[in-house]
Structure formats: structure tokens, C-alpha cells
Specification:
The complex is a heterotrimer of chains A (556), B (307) and C (228).
Chain A (H helix, E strand, L loop, with lengths): L6 H19 L11 H11 L8 E3 L9 E3 H7 L17 E8 L3 H12 L4 E4 L8 H4 L4 E2 L8 H11 L6 H20 L14 E2 L9 E2 L5 H14 L5 E4 L4 E7 L4 E7 L6 E11 L23 H8 L4 E2 L5 E7 L13 H4 L3 E3 L13 H16 L1 E2 L5 E6 L1 H7 L3 H5 L1 H8 L10 E9 L3 E3 L11 E3 L4 E2 L10 H22 L7 E2 L1 H13 L17 H4 L13
Parallel strand pairs in A: 3-4, 3-11, 4-8, 11-19, 18-20
Antiparallel strand pairs in A: 1-2, 5-7, 6-7, 9-10, 9-21, 10-11, 12-18, 13-17, 14-16, 15-16, 16-17
Chain B lengths: L8 E6 L2 H4 L3 H13 L2 E5 L21 H16 L7 E4 L2 H16 L1 H10 L11 E4 H8 L1 H7 L8 E4 L21 H8 L3 E2 L14 H4 L1 H17 L4 E4 L2 H17 L8 E3 H8 L4 H4 L9 H6 L5
Parallel strand pairs in B: 1-2, 1-3, 3-4, 5-6, 5-7, 7-8
Helix pairs in contact in B: 2-12, 4-5, 6-7, 7-8, 10-11
Chain C lengths: L6 E6 L2 E6 L4 H7 L19 E5 L7 E4 L9 E5 L19 H7 L11 H5 L6 H9 L3 H8 L7 H5 L6 H16 L4 H11 L4 H9 L2 H10 L6
Parallel strand pairs in C: 1-5
Antiparallel strand pairs in C: 1-2, 3-4, 3-5
Helix pairs in contact in C: 4-5, 4-7, 5-7
The chains are: A alpha+beta (556), B alpha/beta (307), C alpha+beta (228).
Chain lengths: 556, 307, 228
């Protein structure tokens, strides 16, 4: 339950609720005026964390050398390989496969299913278990323009505007065109989408969408999709093999510059193994667990940008690594759930963000960066509520949902949220929740084209690890869509690449050696290594006494 | 004759799994027939499987949880007003009946066992031992077969029907709905519908082969062939049963018998409620005759009971 | 977490550690110096990786929970269950029927349920696990799919089941059968997929793709927003 000192503020929220409810009931009118282009630019420039002076720095190495990118990302890219290439005997192949998929969220699983459907052998290597990914945690929905009053054209417009017009048009086109087909594919695999009685999809609005386009599966949308894909992968043991607890630590090329495999590192036995593959798909997800600017994150434990490091060292270009997505509504109270995602579906269902005085201060469904920056502005202007642990947040007025949609809506549409907060004695049907932006998504990543190809022959990237689909800001529900659309494309085109006939030459890690030489010249501390693999949450006073500590901020 | 405004009685009804899956015709014909007779069978909310086979081991209380949980549902129905002071728990399937009743006897006659079971199920209200497991035959008997006879609109005149008790309606004695050696309840039921019960045939309570049907069809084929031939010997045109497993064996296994013995003359098998419904004027859409394996319609047509 | 907090004692696999009051089991483990590799996943209650069995001080009952969602109490004894070696039937969904016969074939142990409810008692998601197993026995696949839907597959139900049922895999199968065969189909979806395949929107998207940025920006801010 909320501490007593918050009661005065809670009371104000309650007092203004009726009036705000009336606003919401007024058809054809927004509860708060959406921001113009100029207003958006102003709030982003002044309050979005990306725009702080020290948010970015120049990267001094690799394909994007000279570009200003997010500082923490530059640090991870300017790090040493876990082991020098001389440690590895590339003549002893442990696994040989047609397609190696690194990362087993929904993008990797989709890629595996498509490749398997084309009769190829697939090996999935993943850092934790199959399905251990941000994919599993997505709550709110997946976009697809399948309603009568909607179209892929409108979807295209929303995506590209939300991304500040920086998106690669070919990728957006693929995204919106494949969307309805992807929903159909998922349904045929048995995903249970929320539906009306007549079978039509229950769709909601999301931030920055011009139509109700958000398909959901309660607030377990990502889980419903990801666990179905995983179940299907389990059903195909003949063509899809998988190795868990084995992150890739380096890509292997051949002497012709083609992709040729990867080095895996077993987290428990600490043994490395060599995988030789004719094609590789990177689907390792994003970087939330790098805790950029010390933000809490909604991300999975394994979201440490490993794929970026692998691809970058092998020579693949990065796109938009200067932008970070902060989800507008991360929990700030109670302490145990700080940083946890409070799905955008909550606002899609009509909940409004209000300040400590119960006042609306932003249109509830701006694109995420604008919404987040506006919430930060409100808090910095002294209109937020302080938590006992010293954080600040504003209210997200959930009880409105049932006033607008009827009793029982919250329990049936947001069971995960109800569960999450009731574990700490907060009934979100009766009380608002306290939120603040939280580190959520890697907008950019390894550059791909509409076939999910990189500049390295045979190397494909799909999902959050890729860059270009969402420009500099992703909209809600387009990530779940991205991982399915480009996961399938990666699997399909990787399979085509293999079926067209590939001859792998001599395996080599020379690209890693060349990269290391540059690190040496830059004088990078040898203790700084990447990929990070897992974040380190051991407290300093314990760490100081541990005997096995070798590296900074990563797994030993 | 239209329903003469007798008040409807609401009785808690336990369907069991088979009536919801492979024996839907059994359930439908029973529900609608009883409606005609002024009984509303109110399905237990959230009932669970009866346990299927009653455990005879004295140290295996775990197997009695399922029935007791269902008894708790019946007591709850009384507390929440779904039924009014009605603790009879109506069952149609002989196997459910037998399993449920055995457990009820066990826990109501052993306070220690009841306490153990109640303690194990600490999330549930305690079972107070009020439930009376009742088979539909017993209910019909208590309503009076004469009364039922009065409601018959399509008398089964002349149809020679063999009453098949099987094992579970009669044994053990403490559970049985009638004298295990010389039962008469199904005969009286048949008479009330205007049919002619086949009397004193030998196989009426012989085992059908039961679960051997899954892993040893041969045993069942042998047993069923004997039962059908014995019924025919005594002049039967058809057999009725109240057990979905008996029905499956008696009815569906005749196809296997025919494959093995080309001269075998098949005999239709009914759930007793199908004939009850027929006599009360219910149509095929309720009786579900299509779901019977050996098509009973030619026989009914011959007897003038089916158009 | 700051150092001045009240500390409580927990027993991790029986071993004694002092951790800050209010920690979750997961943060308590990390505070104690364990770097987690197994038994950790999304850390927000969605992935089921951190199934944990614990016993509170003075209690005899074993409880189940997710390490990331359960707050420690003084004297709590903790054992993580990072893996459940449960059976998963491999099947071709295209060939299955959405009825009870599929479960008879693929998961016959379902029919051994004695209704003891142990699965429901241990479920950290408070799902009525026994009810959905019973739904399947009764042939009500739709209800089983809906009831099991919030399952995150931590596996505690299967570990506790005296009848050796693999509830979470059974539920998954029910969900997939429902999603594919029993849920009513969306007519709009079929239509839109066909329209896209016919290239209905192609020219308009091609136009937008090459539109000069200023014009695209203008069209974007002027676009008609119709949400309900």
C-alpha cells in the first residue's frame, strides 16, 4: 500500500477523476492537445536523457568511427575480446550447421521456424534458455493494420513519424506490409489473440498510432507469442537443435570475408566451442541491462548488447546508436518493482498520466520519447510525487479504465499488472500507480536491408539487435511486429542464401586481431571486456572480498 | 399431456467426464427427459473427475479426494442457494455412481478418514457428510414408476428389452441400487415405459470386459459376444445400460465381433435414458441415436417407434 | 540499497546470510554474492525461470514462488528450482484435433489427476491449475486454454503433482489448439492479407517512400487521428 504521506496527492487524483473521465467520454476530442512538431522538439531537447550533454561520445574504432553515439555503448564497443584469438583452435569444429541463430527470443525462434520449414538444419545458441528474452516480457501488443478503417499506408506514416523520419523506408514498408500476414501466421501457430465474440480482433490505440491497431493477448502478448514459437521449435527436433547457456562471444569469418560461424562460451562449464555455419542470424536483442545513464530497465537479465559487439567487430555497420528509448511508464513504487514495465496498453485502455495535483499535463498517447520527456519535465518542475526511496514519479490513473470500459476490464485485460501490484498490496483497480520513464529499448542496431541482411555476406540480423526499422524512436507494438516480420525474413533469406550454394573457406578470427590492435593503440584498459554477457549485481562490499574477480561489470 | 404444473425439483447433478465427451447423447437424453418429469438437474459448478475407479486400499486416501471435493460442491450449492436443501447428488454413469458412493460410505463411516481428507484440502470448506449419492434409476424409482408410466406418450409396446446391470450398479452390496443377486429395478423401469423386459437372462450382471477394451480387446470381444448371444437367446431385441464403458463395449465392440465372426447378428444398445426420452416423446435431436454404433433406428422403425 | 537498512536472516540452500529487509529472493541472492546464471530470467515475473521453493520461519508448509517476485522474510529457507526435466510431447499441430482425444494420445497422464489440487496450491501465478486439467478431462479445451493462459511455465506444478502430470505443457497444448482451431476467425484479417498480396497499397507506400522530408513531415502532422 502507499505510504500515508501520499494520501493528499491520491485524494487530488480522485477528485479530478470525474472531470477527466468526462473529457475522455467526449467523442472525437483528445483529453489533452497533442504536441506540435515544435513542442515535441522542445520537450525532447530539454528533457529527454539522450539530449543531455554527456549522453553521447565519439566512438574511436570500427565502422562507425567518428560518430557520436550513446556513451555506454561506445564503452562496450571499445572493449577487449574475452580471449585472444590464439586461444581458439578453429580447425576443431564442434558443431556444423546450415544456419546458426544466436539468441532465442521471438526473432530467433521465428527465423529458426522459417529456416526449418525450408528443410535446413538450424542450430540455436542462446545465452540463457530458449525464450529468455525481452520478447517474453512484452505486454501491450503487436501492431498490424488489419481493421477496416486502417491501412498499411497509415501504419507506415505512424511508424516513420514516430521514428522522426529517420527510419529506412524499405524496412518500414516491409514491416507494415508483412504485419497482417504475421498475425495470421501466429494465429495459425495457435497464438490466442484477444478477440470480440464474432472473431474480429480486439484492437486498442498505442502511443503515436492514428488508428486502433494494437492486437493483444491480455497483457501477456509477448509471452503468448514467444512461448508458442518456442513450443513449435521444440516440436521440430529433427531440424532445429539448440544449445542453452551458451552465448556467442565472437563471430567467425572465412578468408573470403563471408560469415562462417561463431565461438560459443558455456556459462557453466566455461568451455568454448566452435560452430561452423553457412549463414548466421544475430537475434540477441537490446541493451537495457547496460543501465545507460544509470536508469533502471524493463529489460531481461540478458539484454547486454552482445550481438552489437559481435557484429561490429566483424565489420557490420551500426545505425542510430545515438538514441535510447525510455519507456514513459516504468514503476517507481514499491521499491521491489522499480523500473518494471507498466504497459502502454494501460494508457491504450484510457488511463491518464497526471501530476501530484491530479492534473493532466500531456496527451496520454504521444510517441514514447515525447511522452517520456514530458513526464520528466513534469517531475523536474516539482509536480511529481517523491517515493520513500528518493525517486520521483507521476500518477498513472488506472481506475479510469474501468469507468471507461466497464468493471472487470482491468482483471481481464491486464492480469499481469494486477498480479504484479497485488503482490505488494496495491489494487490498481482502485488506486493509480506511480511511474517514471525507464530504460526500455534499443532504437538502433546493426544496419540491415529489407532482407535482414548486413554488409557481411551470410550475416543476418533481426529484432532489437537490428537498426533502421524504427528510426530514432519505436512505437508501442512495433517491436513485437519487428521480431516476427524480420525474424521470419532473416530465417527465410538466410535459408535462400544457403540453398543458393555457399562454400565456406578457411575459418579465421583475423578481424578480431585487427580490432584488438586498434584497442591496443587506443590504450584501452585490458580489464574492460565485451560482450558483457550478464550484468553484475553483486554489491561492492561483497565484491571487494571475492577472489575470482577478473573483469569490470560483467560475468567472470 | 402437457406438464400439469407440478413444481420443478432442482437436484445437484454430477455429469462425469464421459457424458461431456463421448456420451453426450446419454446426457442430453437424460436432461431433457427429466425436465419432462419435472426435475431440473443442476450441474455442479467446477466439478472434477470422480476418480474413475474406487480405490480399495485402506491407506490410499489420496484417491478419495476427488469424490469428496465433489461432495463439497454439493454442500456449497445448498449454501449458495443453487438448490434448496437438496443433498441428493444425481449421477447417470454407473462408474461415477459407484466410485462416488464408495467414497461417501468410506468417509462418512470413518471420522478419522474424513478428518484427514478435510485437513488435506484445507483450502476447501470441510465436507460435512450430508451428500446422498443417487443414481438416476434410484431417483426414478423414488418418484414412482407408476408416475412415469403416466407421462409416457409413446409406449414402447412390445419392444423386448434386456436390462443390462453390469457390475457397478449392484456391487458391492453396500453400494448397489438393488438386490445384487436378483435385481428388478431396470425391469420395472422398462415396464413403466411399456416395453417388455427380458427376465432372468443369465448375463445381465456379467462383466463386459471393462478397461480391457484398451489393452486386450480379445477379452472384451469374447465377453460381449456372450452377453449379446445370451440376450438374444432370451428373446431380446435390444439391450439397455447406464454405463458409458459398458455401452462402448457392448455397442462398438460388436463391429470387431462382426469382423471376426461374419455370421454374428448385431443388436442395438441404448442408454436407458434414450428409451426414456423416446417414450416421453423426445426427438432424435435430443436422443442422439446417430451416435450409437449399431444403428437402432431400423429396430425402432420395425416397432413403430420411429418415423 | 543503502547500508542502513534493517537486515533479516535467510537460509539459501540451508546456508545462513544476512540481507536487507524488503529484498526479493533474487536480490537477496545477489546481495549475498551469488552471480546468477540459472534460475534467473526476465526478473519481472514473465518468464518462469526463477521458480523457488521456500519455507517461512516456524512454518511446515513449503511454498512456491518466483524469486524475482517474492519478498524475503526473516528466517526464510530458500531453494531455487532452475530446471524442470518435464516431458514435452512433440507434435504436428496441423494434424491434431482440438478435443480430448489429442490429450489421451499426447499426455495420457492428465487422466490420472486425483483432484488433490497440489498444483493450484503451488502456482505462483495463482492459476487454478487443477481446474484446467479437469477441463481437459471433461473435453472443454476452450476453458482449459483460457484458464491456463497466464502460465509462465515455471514448472512447479509438475514437480509437485502426485499423478506426474506435466500441467504447463498440457496447458500450452490447450492454448495452441484453441488459438488455431477453436477461436473464431477474424474476417478483416483475411481480407487485408489478400489486399496486400494484390498490391492494393503498393503505389501509395511507394509515393511516401520517396516524398521529400518536409512534405512527409507535413502530411504526418496533418494526418487524421481516429482512435477510440
Amino acid at each position: 500500500m502507499y505510504p500515508e504521506y501520499m494520501n493528499a496527492s491520491l485524494k487530488k487524483v480522485e477528485e479530478t477523476r470525474e472531470k477527466r473521465y468526462a473529457l475522455a467520454k467526449e467523442r472525437g476530442k483528445e483529453v489533452f492537445t497533442p504536441q506540435s512538431e515544435e513542442e515535441r522538439e522542445a520537450v525532447l531537447a530539454n528533457y529527454h536523457p539522450d539530449y543531455k550533454d554527456d549522453a553521447r561520445r565519439e566512438i574511436r574504432i570500427g565502422p562507425n568511427k567518428g560518430e557520436r553515439i550513446t556513451g555506454r555503448v561506445a564503452d562496450v564497443l571499445e572493449s577487449w575480446p574475452r580471449d585472444p584469438s590464439s586461444r581458439f583452435d578453429l580447425s576443431r569444429i564442434d558443431y556444423e550447421t546450415d544456419i546458426l541463430i544466436i539468441g532465442a527470443g521471438s526473432a530467433g525462434l521465428s527465423a529458426a521456424l522459417e529456416a526449418s520449414a525450408r528443410g535446413l538444419n538450424v542450430l540455436i545458441a542462446t545465452k540463457l534458455r530458449l525464450g529468455d528474452a525481452n520478447s517474453m516480457m512484452a505486454q501491450g501488443g503487436i501492431q498490424a493494420a488489419d481493421q477496416k478503417d486502417d491501412s498499411p499506408v497509415l501504419h507506415y506514416m505512424d511508424v516513420i513519424g514516430g521514428g522522426h523520419f529517420d527510419n529506412k523506408p524499405d524496412l518500414v514498408e516491409a514491416l507494415v506490409n508483412d504485419a497482417p500476414k504475421s498475425i495470421k501466421w501466429l494465429e495459425e501457430l495457435g497464438v490466442m489473440f484477444d478477440k470480440e465474440l464474432d472473431g474480429s480482433m480486439s484492437v486498442k490505440a498505442g502511443g503515436g498510432t492514428s488508428r486502433n491497431r494494437m492486437h493483444s493477448a491480455r497483457d501477456y502478448t509477448g509471452a503468448a507469442i514467444c512461448k508458442t514459437l518456442r513450443d513449435e521449435v521444440y516440436n521440430r527436433p529433427d531440424t532445429i537443435k539448440y544449445i542453452e547457456f551458451s552465448p556467442a562471444t565472437e563471430l567467425i569469418l572465412d578468408d573470403k570475408g563471408q560469415i562462417a560461424g561463431a565461438i560459443l562460451y558455456h556459462l557453466e562449464t566455461k568451455e568454448y566451442s566452435i560452430v561452423k555455419a553457412k549463414s548466421v542470424v544475430i537475434s540477441t536483442g537490446g541493451f537495457g541491462r547496460l543501465h545507460i545513464r544509470n536508469f533502471e530497465t524493463t529489460n531481461h537479465y540478458g539484454a547486454t548488447a552482445d550481438g552489437l559487439v559481435l557484429g561490429y567487430r566483424a565489420g557490420a555497420n551500426l545505425l542510430y546508436m545515438d538514441s535510447v528509448q525510455y519507456h514513459p511508464t516504468g514503476a517507481v513504487f514499491p521499491e521491489q518493482v522499480v523500473g518494471f514495465l507498466c504497459t502502454e496498453k494501460i494508457r491504450g485502455l484510457g488511463a491518464q498520466p497526471v501530476n501530484k495535483d491530479g492534473e493532466l499535463f500531456v496527451y496520454p498517447l504521444e510517441p514514447r520519447d515525447v511522452e517520456a520527456a514530458s513526464i520528466i519535465r513534469e517531475c523536474e518542475n516539482g509536480k511529481g510525487v517523491k517515493t520513500p526511496s528518493g525517486l520521483t514519479g507521476i500518477w498513472l490513473d488506472t481506475p479510469l479504465i474501468e469507468m471507461l470500459n466497464g468493471e472487470g476490464t482491468i482483471e481481464s485485460s491486464l492480469p499481469a499488472m494486477v498480479r504484479q501490484f497485488s503482490r505488494f498490496d496495491i489494487d490498481i483497480r482502485k488506486y493509480p500507480i506511480l511511474i517514471y520513464p525507464t530504460l526500455h529499448y534499443q532504437n538502433g542496431g546493426l544496419e540491415i536491408n529489407e532482407k535482414a541482411e548486413t554488409s557481411i555476406p551470410g550475416l543476418y540480423v533481426a529484432g532489437e539487435a537490428s537498426g533502421g526499422v524504427h528510426g530514432r524512436n519505436r512505437l508501442m507494438g512495433n517491436s513485437q511486429l519487428d521480431i516476427i516480420v524480420f525474424g521470419r525474413r532473416a530465417g527465410t533469406y538466410a535459408a535462400e542464401h544457403v540453398l543458393a550454394g555457399v562454400t565456406i573457406g578457411r575459418l579465421t578470427l583475423e578481424h578480431v586481431d585487427r580490432y584488438s590492435e586498434k584497442l591496443e593503440k587506443l590504450g584501452i584498459d585490458k580489464k574492460r571486456i565485451s560482450p558483457v554477457i550478464l550484468p553484475d549485481y553483486i554489491p561492492d562490499h561483497v565484491k571487494a572480498k571475492q577472489l575470482t574477480l577478473n573483469y569490470f561489470g560483467t560475468l567472470t | 399431456m402437457e406438464n400439469d404444473k407440478t413444481e420443478t425439483v432442482k437436484i445437484p447433478y454430477f455429469p462425469g467426464c464421459t457424458l461431456k465427451t463421448t456420451a453426450k447423447n446419454f446426457e442430453q437424453s437424460a436432461l431433457r427427459s427429466m425436465e419432462k418429469l419435472g426435475v431440473e438437474m443442476v450441474e455442479l459448478p467446477k466439478w472434477n473427475c470422480c476418480g474413475t475407479v474406487s480405490s480399495l486400499a485402506s491407506d490410499d486416501l489420496m484417491k478419495h479426494l476427488a469424490p469428496v471435493r465433489d461432495f463439497i460442491r454439493v454442500e456449497e450449492m445448498n449454501n449458495t442457494g443453487l438448490v434448496d436443501n437438496e443433498y441428493r447428488m444425481l449421477t447417470l454413469c454407473s462408474m461415477c455412481f459407484n466410485t462416488l458412493k464408495q467414497t461417501n460410505i468410506r468417509v462418512t463411516s470413518s471420522p478419522e478418514d474424513l478428518q484427514s481428507v478435510n485437513q488435506f484440502m484445507y483450502l476447501e470448506k470441510d465436507y460435512e457428510g450430508k451428500v446422498d449419492v443417487t443414481h438416476l434409476f434410484e431417483l426414478l424409482d423414488s418418484m414412482g414408476f407408476d408416475t412415469i408410466a403416466e407421462r409416457v406418450v409413446r409406449s414402447l409396446d412390445g419392444l423386448k428389452i434386456a436390462p443390462y446391470y453390469g457390475c457397478l450398479l449392484l456391487r458391492p452390496k453396500s453400494v448397489g441400487i438393488d438386490n445384487p443377486e436378483n435385481p428388478s429395478i431396470i425391469e420395472r423401469f422398462i415396464s413403466s415405459l411399456g416395453g417388455s423386459p427380458v427376465m432372468n437372462w443369465e448375463a445381465k450382471s456379467r462383466c463386459c470386459g471393462s478397461y480391457h477394451t484398451v489393452d486386450n480387446k480379445a477379452i472384451v470381444i469374447k465377453s460381449v459376444k456372450g452377453i449379446i448371444e445370451n440376450a438374444r437367446e432370451f428373446g431380446a431385441e435390444t439391450i439397455i445400460t447406464s454405463c458409458p464403458l459398458c455401452a462402448f463395449n457392448l455397442d462398438n465392440r460388436q463391429e470387431d465381433i462382426m469382423k471376426e465372426f461374419p455370421d454374428f447378428d448385431p443388436m442395438p444398445v441404448f442408454y436407458f435414458t434414450q428409451l426414456l426420452g423416446l417414450a416421453l416423446g423426445l426427438g432424435d435431436e435430443v436422443l442422439g441415436l446417430d451416435d450409437n454404433c449399431i444403428d437402432p433406428r431400423p429396430l425402432l422403425k420395425r416397432s413403430g417407434l420411429y418415423e | 540499497m543503502s547500508e542502513e537498512r534493517n537486515m533479516v536472516t535467510v537460509y539459501i540452500l540451508g546456508e545462513h546470510f544476512m540481507v536487507p529487509e524488503g529484498s526479493t529472493i533474487m536480490t537477496a541472492l545477489e546481495y549475498s554474492g551469488f552471480q546468477l546464471k540459472r534460475g534467473v530470467g526476465c526478473r519481472e515475473g514473465f518468464c518462469g525461470a526463477c521458480a523457488t521453493v521456500y519455507r517461512e520461519k516456524g512454518e511446515y508448509k513449503l511454498k512456491g514462488g518466483l524469486a524475482c517476485q517474492t519478498v524475503v522474510s526473516d528466517g526464510m529457507t530458500i531453494a531455487r528450482i532452475p530446471f524442470v526435466p518435464a516431458e514435452k510431447a512433440a507434435y504436428n499441430l496441423e494434424e491434431l484435433k482440438p478435443d480430448v482425444s489429442t490429450f489421451v494420445e499426447l499426455y495420457p497422464s492428465v487422466f490420472r489427476c486425483v483432484s488433490c489440487n497440489t498444483c493450484t496450491k503451488i502456482c505462483p501465478q495463482d492459476i487454478n491449475v487443477m481446474d484446467y486439467i479437469q477441463d481437459i478431462i471433461k473435453g472443454d479445451i476452450a476453458s482449459a486454454a483460457q484458464t491456463s493462459f497466464d502460465c509462465i511455465r515455471c514448472g512447479l506444478c509438475a514437480l509437485r503433482c502426485p499423478a506426474e502430470i506435466v500441467q504447463f505443457n498440457v496447458g500450452m497444448l490447450a492454448q495452441r489448439l484453441y488459438g488455431k482451431y477453436l477461436a473464431p476467425k477474424s474476417p478483416e484479417l483475411e481480407t487485408r492479407v489478400a489486399e496486400i498480396e494484390e498490391g492494393k497499397y503498393e503505389s501509395e507506400i511507394k509515393r511516401l517512400k520517396v516524398l521529400p522530408k518536409e512534405e512527409l513531415v507535413k502530411e504526418y502532422y496533418e494526418r487524421d487521428i481516429k482512435i477510440t
